[in-house]
Amino acid sequence: MSSLLLGVDIGTASSKGVLVRADGTIVATATRAHEVSMPRPGWVEHDAQAVWWTDFASISEELTATVRQPLAAVGVSGLGPCLLPVDGQDRPLRPAILYGVDTRARLEIDELTQALGRQAILERCGSVLTSQAVGPKLAWLRAHEPETWAATRRFLMASSFIVRRLTGSYVLDHHSASQCTPMYDPVGHRWIEEWTELVAPGLELPELCWPCDVVGVVRGSAAAETGIPAGTPVVAGTVDAWAEATSVGVIAPGDVMVMYGTTMFLVEVLDRPRRSPDLWGTVGTFPGTHNFAAGMATSGAITEWIRKLTGESSFDPLVAEAQQSPPGSHGLLMLPYFAGERTPLFDPDARGVLAGLTLRHNRGDVYRAALEATAYGVRHNLEAMRDAGGRDRRLVAVGGGTKGGLWTQIVSDVLDAPQQLPRRTMGACLGDALLAAMGIGESPRSTPIDGTRWNAIATTIEPHPESAATYQRCYALYRELYPSTREITHALAREQCTDPPRIGGS
Asked: Do domains 4-241 and 300-381+475-491 have the same CATH topology?
């Protein structure tokens, strides 16, 4: 009987786990839903103990209770990059500040960019400073929460927090570190000491490693909370999108993973390190690999907002009604910038717009317009990748949003390009298990495409030519709508900053 591997991913809206054998056979799965906290406009947070650790421990305990066979290894990924400051005993000092959807550090982005030089940062780090970067978030913490900063000794992300609790090791994988701009050199694979000291003086930095490196074993105290046997090897893990890309074989130059989730995220494998001020240039999952990454601030978050707004308990009625609306949603056009926008705009003050409304429109039209808006956003990002030297020769669609068919069909029609769908859409946890298998030698590190054996391509979504023609016209209008409304939406964003704080919830 082959070894059992545990993979757990801590996501934005839910956490997922899987027990899988080394041949790819899934033994059991588990899921936990949770919410983010948005206490102020532009702030997006998670409670690391109540969300990250509680979800991980609960999922692990449920899955390990289903089998008698011991685990061979554990892999974990998480939403990121995030900032969780901890004290000398690794106690969280405040809720974790999440990735690019949290836009609080705008002033710090400007100050660091002025101090270091925008072009210098791009050339040395692979990305300009944006809300995605961890460096400005650390600078924000120093400036705005000095008591918290004074107690901060280390910083963790979702995956490294779990690894620390499991093993006691203070590590961070190279990919996650490459999103700590301006603190990491993606060519030299090291911390940039002088810039790190400027951003976060005195902070103890984690040891750098690769996602599939074994970094320790489960300690007795963690074993008691999780059900994972003490002594089980644990790999470093990484950010969720990169774990999922590994699980579906997105490893060759020109391969692009399009992740349909709470946010829309894209990862393209490059033939060499490249730079673009409109994208994130990162280190890949394995030594010698590099990526472009792009991310929209919202996608599934908008559909969830519409579901709640309409009082529906499921998406099924909305999808059915949207299917009755034609391409172009009877002349509706939406900007999906409900939480600002990340790539390629890097505009935290962008806002959602719904243009063309009449009394004739119904909620099916509005729902379809939301799906189309995210598809236009994907096209905008892919065009930015091409302009910067990317090839996007193969698109692989993953995530919960690929279920049902309508959303993926709309995206293929807008792109006028096929998308491949893997057999399983369970998320990054499968990639976590595969990275764990690589770490202990159950799967060779030299051939990460082995992931396609675990999760083969099941179907291909081909574009409909007649719909593609309609969307070509609509996309041109979409690109005009943002600059035409930018000054108004920025003024409204300033008004929203005067709103009283909200405590908890989404």
From this structure: yes
**CATH superfamily entry for domain 4-241:** ATPase, nucleotide binding domain (3.30.420.40)
Helix (H, G, I), strand (E, B) or coil at 9: strand
Computed from CA positions of residues 145, 149, 150, 152, in that sequence, does the dihedral angle turn out positive or negative?
positive
DSSP state of 394: E
In whole angstroms, give the CA distance from residue 77 to residue 211: 9
| Cβ atoms 18, 428 nearer than 8 A | no
Rounded to the nearest angstrom, the gap between the alpha carbon of residue 314 and the centroid of all alpha carbons in its chain is: 24
The structural domains of the chain, with segments of one domain joined by +, span 4-241, 300-381+475-491
Residue with tokens 């900063």: 149
Interval 364-420: pLDDT, tens:
999 999 999 999 999 999 999 999 999 989 999 998 889 889 999 999 999 999 999
Q: Would you give the DSSP letter of residue 483?
A: H
* Per-state percent for the chain, helix, strand, coil, to nearest 5: 40, 20, 40
Interatomic CA distance for residues 50 and 79, integer angstroms: 15
What is the per-residue pLDDT across 96-143, written as a single tens digit (0 to 9) for each?
999 988 999 999 999 999 999 999 999 999 999 999 999 999 999 999
Topology adopted by domain 300-381+475-491: Nucleotidyltransferase; domain 5 (3.30.420)
pTM equals 0.88
Helices and strands (DSSP H and E) totals, the chain: 17, 24
Contacts of residue 413, defined as CB under 8 A and 6 or more positions apart, other chains included, come to: 327, 375, 463, 464, 467, 468, 471
Q: Shortest CA distance to 20 belongs to which of 79, 78, 74?
A: 74
3-state secondary structure 266-333: EEEECCCCCCCCCCEEEECCCCCCEEEEEECCCCHHHHHHHHHHHCCCCCHHHHHHHHCCCCCCCCCE
Place of tokens 């099941």: 458
Q: Residue 362: count other Cβ atoms within 10 Å of its Cβ.
A: 13
**100 Cβ partners below 8 Å, 6+ apart?**
130, 131, 132, 295, 297, 342
Which pair of tokens denotes residue 60? 């692990």
DSSP for residue 45: E
DSSP 8-state symbol, 145: -
Contacts (Cβ under 8 Å, ≥6 apart) of 33: 13, 14
Q: Say what the pLDDT of residue 425 is.
A: 74
User: What is the SS3 assignment for 473?
Assistant: helix
Cα diameter, the chain: 64
Q: Tell me if 416 sits within 8 A of 470, measured CB to CB.
A: no
Tokens for 163?
């690894």
Distance CA 414, CA 334 (A): 14
